[in-house]
Design brief:
278 residues; mainly alpha; 10 helices; disordered C terminus
């Protein structure tokens, strides 16, 4: 009975994470479409509207960053925190998604995957902490009436047990199987919701390519070119980053420069679909 409850509860939590991801995608896609697919016959109105959207979102993002800290949390940030402390601060993940939503709606990104995946990682740690608490206190929880049981299972910010060396350790093979099943459940539900709402795939299809046998001789050359280009790109990126780090620009100045860059792109290249986010 305990194993079945534990397994079903994990499926329920992974479904909640999938639903959260789908909701974020839908909000970001619909809001971005509503904001940026507005036609103006008067060019002055278009400039004024663009100014209000870009710098309005920039001002709100600035206020939120000053109040909440350096958000949104990206995949890189979440994975780095996981490697260093085996934990992720997930209690305020919704704040990260709100800031990410505003940043994407302002035109500062081409896709919601990075901040969303960071939130999914944080929520996955939250799921593990909830399940760890239920497992450690199973007998105590089920000795109470059903109302109190639901409180333990459904309260989002209480009844959590973080990972430590002293906590119960599940068999590694069983843990991997459960993780795979929960991932399949979450991804599967997300895929079904995306298909039911007629949303396009995250995978961009580049078209069909037909190679002849004599053309395959160029494959090693292309692989070598890709490796060299990637190596040069990383080096140049690190040099630029090191150079930019010498400038101590305030958060306000950095956001204003970013907003100005978006504003200029929208004015001079309005036909470029840089704001398509799905």
């Amino acid at each position: 009975m305990k194993k079945m409850v534990f397994f079903v509860y994990g499926l329920f939590l992974s479904s909640l994470i999938s639903l959260m991801s789908y909701t974020f995608i839908m909000l970001e896609g619909n809001f971005s479409h509503a904001i940026w697919h507005v036609s103006f016959s008067n060019p002055v109105l278009r400039v004024f509207y663009t100014f209000l959207v870009v710098f309005g979102c920039t001002a709100v993002v600035y206020r939120l960053k000053k109040r909440w800290g350096n958000l949104p949390i990206t995949t890189h940030d979440a994975m780095k925190e996981m490697k260093t402390s085996q934990k992720v601060i997930y209690h305020k993940f919704w704040r990260s998604l709100i800031v990410a939503l505003l940043v994407l709606m302002s035109g500062a990104g081409v896709g919601p995957e990075a901040p969303l995946l960071g939130a999914v990682i944080a929520c996955s740690v939250w799921q593990a902490d909830k399940m760890r608490f239920i497992n450690a206190n199973y007998e105590q929880i089920f000795s109470q009436n059903w109302k109190h049981r639901l409180k333990y299972f459904l309260h989002p910010t209480r009844f959590l047990l973080s990972y430590s060396e002293n906590t119960f350790k599940m068999d590694l093979k069983k843990k991997k199987i459960l993780n795979i099943l929960y991932i399949i459940n979450g991804v599967g539900l997300f895929f079904i919701l995306m298909r039911l709402s007629d949303q396009p795939s995250f995978i961009t299809k580049m078209g069909t390519v037909h190679f002849k046998m004599q053309q395959l001789v160029f494959l090693p050359i292309l692989i070598a070119y890709g490796y060299v280009f990637s190596f040069i790109y990383q080096k140049v990126k690190n040099i630029i980053k090191t150079y930019l780090n010498t400038f101590t620009l305030s958060l306000q100045i950095r956001l204003l420069l970013g907003g100005l860059a978006i504003f200029i792109v929208v004015l001079f290249r309005p036909s470029v679909d840089v704001f398509r986010t799905i």
